[in-house]
Design a protein that fits this description.
It is built from 16 helices and 32 strands. With 656 residues, it is α/β, with parallel strands linked by helices. It folds into seven domains: 111 residues, Cobalt-precorrin-4 Transmethylase, domain 1 (3-Layer(aba) Sandwich); 82 residues, Rossmann fold (3-Layer(aba) Sandwich); 96 residues, 4-hydroxy-3-methylbut-2-enyl diphosphate reductase, catalytic domain (Cobalt-precorrin-4 Transmethylase, domain 1), CATH 3.40.1010.20; 66 residues, Nucleic acid-binding proteins (OB fold (Dihydrolipoamide Acetyltransferase, E2P), Beta Barrel); 85 residues, OB fold (Dihydrolipoamide Acetyltransferase, E2P); 76 residues, Nucleic acid-binding proteins (OB fold (Dihydrolipoamide Acetyltransferase, E2P)); 85 residues, Beta Barrel (OB fold (Dihydrolipoamide Acetyltransferase, E2P)). It is elongated.
């Protein structure tokens, strides 16, 4: 009698969900139909196949199928031509193809129909790969590893072609990762679909860990099962390992020196055989800590229904969906659309392999063994509690605008979509809300309906508070003479309003520019960032006067530095009046040519001699810096004799 010996059974031992589903389908059909056949052995397990034969179900080849048969297609799947042939025969077809394999068929068919060349990682002679190729209407190639893929590329057969790359569901995960890495370098435009089912790699990984702890390993499965032999090969590297098909073979194995015995099983091994092996082994070694297989089996078959909260461990992540282990015989899938509310997030940014996540069941599918799940709805339920708390605490939340809808926006925060009415979203009237799409915003919760799980928020409420705080800080810390950067908010005939960050200031026309202009829009535009100087502040009325003119650009200072009385210069006529003409000396500084200083003769109408735009030579005769007045003369530059003639004319007139 053996004592103090522990039996450890791998959690992943036995049927994968695809095989489990296929076997259940056969037994269900036998309960309701006669003349049931399977297209090839339903699984590589002699006990199951023998039991089915006793029940009247034979494994047949395609050419043996007769009209009137109920033909069950096994989990490996078959080519489209096989479906066509079965339809032609006129038999009843029950499809037990693994859903993961069916998904590959769909990808291959759709892309092949769009003129893609399909590349399949796997064993060309494997029934699953043959079936996948049978759904391709165009070119397809099979490669088993990086060397074959590289060789295929070098032949030039893939040049200038649209490519889709996928893998056999049971393909080695490590090899697949290496192939993907190579494909990204050699075929950067190819679409890569991660179609490996994790059941096989998980089973092998767990068996390796178990074998590293055990003194003896027992692998239960059919001797013709490829995955069972691979499982044994993995364990052989760690300890003595035995492959058995049933409990009756245990008697020939010596467990006398073993303190820990590990058990795993291939994907084609039914639960009742594993159970029988565990019972028999327990009897042999009289283990007081006997493994309770009934409890483990019951736990693996716990019911799943719509709306149930479950936990799952992430097995794999791709661009379309995430596969999770629910701790049951059912496989869980989270569609990318049910992963997160953030439209810009990729699945790999949200979860990683090995993560344990809370989920809600959207659709239990007992027939196919797949459960459709949602992470974002759990997040929303948890997030709604945070929304309610934010309402109570009057807290500011941050979210991303995901949709622009009639009447406002939808903002995603904590996994919840909060409605923001247009009146509470737009910073001003006639604002295009589409400009806010995918932008991060801050908002407050105005209303919460816990029964309907709805919330209404306001972006403007936060902006209003921020503006009030900014105003308070501005009037507290700002003084006359300070220079501040602001944004031009609006333009009027009399000046420009500038947003100083919570406070609006006015730059009147006279303070906009030293130069002459017709309208303020010639100087600045709405949205311009400009430096302005505080000219005056009234904290009570909240009015702020600004100047945009710079002292360093004051044209009078430039004039005083470069011009003096008696200097002869050229000036441009800019306006004409009844008493003379104004001429621009430099930009922003004009001088007056009085009517008496235009010519050496009497002038009755200035416009008879000068017009706007004329460039004339003048002499500076007077400068008044305080009044900013300059007197100019054209007459003083005229010849002296012309003056004498004029004096004679004046004397003649007086005598008359």
């Amino acid at each position: 009698m053996l004592t103090k010996c522990k039996i450890l059974v791998a959690k992943t031992a036995g049927f994968c969900f695809g095989v489990d589903r296929a076997v259940k389908i056969v037994y269900n059909e036998l309960d309701i139909r006669n003349n049931v056949v399977t297209l090839g052995p339903i699984i590589h397990n002699g006990n199951v196949v023998a039991d089915l034969e006793r029940r009247g179900c034979r494994a047949v080849e395609l050419d043996e199928v007769k009209k009137g048969n109920t033909v069950i297609i096994r989990s490996h799947g078959v080519a489209k031509a096989v479906y066509d042939k079965l339809s032609e025969i006129g038999c009843t077809v029950v499809d037990a193809t693994c859903p993961f394999v069916s998904r590959i068929h769909k990808i291959a068919a759709e892309h092949s129909g769009d003129d893609y060349t399909i590349l399949i990682a796997g064993d060309a002679a494997h029934p699953e790969v043959e079936g996948i190729r049978g759904h391709c209407t165009g070119e397809s190639f099979v490669f088993d590893g990086c060397e074959q893929l590289e060789s295929l590329v070098k032949t030039g057969a893939l040049a200038k072609k649209k490519l889709a790359i996928l893998a056999q569901t049971t393909y080695n995960k490590k090899k697949w990762e290496q192939c993907c890495e190579l494909a990204e370098k050699l075929l950067p435009n190819a679409k890569i679909y991660h179609t490996i089912c994790n059941a096989t790699s998980e089973r092998q990984s767990e068996a390796a860990v178990l074998a590293s702890k055990a003194d003896v390993m027992v692998i239960v499965g059919g001797r013709h099962s490829s995955n069972t032999h691979k499982l044994k090969a993995v364990c052989d590297a760690y300890c003595p390992c035995y492959l058995i098909e049933g409990a009756d073979e245990l008697k020939s194995i010596d467990f006398s020196a073993a303190k820990i015995i590990g058990i795993s099983a291939g994907a084609s091994t039914p639960a009742y055989i594993i159970k029988e092996v565990v019972r028999t082994m327990s009897e042999i070694i009289n283990n007081e800590e006997e493994f309770n297989f009934e409890e483990a089996l019951e736990a693996s078959l716990k019911p799943i229904h719509i709306g149930k909260r479950v936990q799952g461990t992430v097995l794999s992540v791709n661009s379309n969906e995430v596969y999770v282990d629910l701790g049951t015989k059912q496989q869980g899938i989270i569609p990318a659309s049910e992963l997160t509310d953030d439209p810009g997030a990729k699945p790999e940014d949200v979860v990683k392999v090995g993560d344990v996540v809370d989920l809600i069941v959207l659709k239990p599918n007992d027939q196919e063994g797949i459960v459709t799940l949602s992470k974002k709805r759990v997040d929303a339920a948890i997030g709604f509690e945070k929304i309610v708390a934010a309402k109570e605490e009057n807290a500011v939340l941050t979210g991303v605008v995901t949709n622009v809808i009639k009447g406002g926006l939808l903002v995603s925060a904590n996994g919840v979509k909060v409605f923001i009415p247009a009146s509470q979203a737009a910073p001003k009237r006639d604002y295009d809300l589409n400009q806010m799409l995918r932008q991060q915003v801050e908002f407050k919760i105005l209303e919460v309906s816990e029964g309907k799980q709805r919330a209404v928020g306001s972006i403007r409420a936060v902006a209003k508070e921020q503006r009030a705080a900014a105003q308070s800080a501005f009037f507290e810390n700002t003084k006359v003479g300070d220079t501040i950067n602001g944004e031009v908010k609006s333009i009027t005939d009399y000046g420009v309003f500038v947003d100083l960050g919570g406070v609006d200031g006015l730059v009147r026309r006279a303070d906009l520019s030293w130069n002459r202009f017709k309208h303020p829009s010639e100087i600045v535009s709405v949205g311009d960032k400009i430096d302005v100087t505080i000219k005056d502040i009234d904290p009570e009325t909240k009015k702020v006067a600004l100047t945009y003119k710079k002292d360093s650009e004051n044209p009078w200072e430039l004039f005083k530095a470069n011009y003096e009385v008696g200097q002869v210069i050229k000036a441009t006529i800019v306006s004409i009046t009844s008493f003379g003409a104004f001429a621009q000396i430099i930009n922003g500084v004009d001088g007056l040519i009085h009517i008496s200083q235009i010519a050496n003769k009497r002038v009755d109408n200035v416009a008879d001699i000068l017009k706007v735009g004329d460039e004339v030579e003048v002499k500076i005769t007077e400068i008044d810096p305080e009044k900013k007045r300059i007197s100019l003369s054209m007459r003083e530059l005229l010849p002296e004799e012309d003056d004498a003639v004029e004096e004679a004319d004046e004397d003649s007139d007086s005598e008359k």
